[in-house]
Amino acid sequence: MSEVTTDDVERRSLVLVVEDEVFIAMELEQALTAGGFHVQGPASSVRDALELLEEERPYAAVLDFNLGREKVTPVALKLQSLGIPFVLASATAATELAHYDVLAGVTNVGKPTNLHRLVEAVRALNS
């Protein structure tokens, strides 16, 4: 039986944060860190998020839907293809999210975000 290393534990708790608003990104990062997770990013654009995914695979992700003028759907599709679960932290209405197959039915903790609910939603992703 192999030993579990610190790197293994960190990888299992690594959460990609994709949020373009700096103060909100910092708030999400602080809440996740306090909840025992390690944060990858935050990424403020689709390109930045995809680059981070090329560098390292997270355990899970927290995505905002609107990133400036772009939508997060390419990141969600990449996460889906890699089998990485994610939640949304977005003010976007469920009816609009339902137009995107990759986002339909995904947990959205909303904005303003209840940070306790966010941490619990991320914990629930792989349980």
UniProtKB/TrEMBL annotation:
<dbReference type="InterPro" id="IPR001789">
    <property type="entry name" value="Sig_transdc_resp-reg_receiver"/>
</dbReference>
<feature type="modified residue" description="4-aspartylphosphate">
    <location>
        <position position="64"/>
    </location>
</feature>
<feature type="domain" description="Response regulatory">
    <location>
        <begin position="14"/>
        <end position="126"/>
    </location>
</feature>
<keyword id="KW-0614">Plasmid</keyword>
<dbReference type="GO" id="GO:0000160">
    <property type="term" value="P:phosphorelay signal transduction system"/>
</dbReference>
<dbReference type="InterPro" id="IPR011006">
    <property type="entry name" value="CheY-like_superfamily"/>
</dbReference>
<dbReference type="Pfam" id="PF00072">
    <property type="entry name" value="Response_reg"/>
</dbReference>
<keyword id="KW-0597">Phosphoprotein</keyword>
<protein>
    <submittedName>
        <fullName>Response regulator</fullName>
    </submittedName>
</protein>
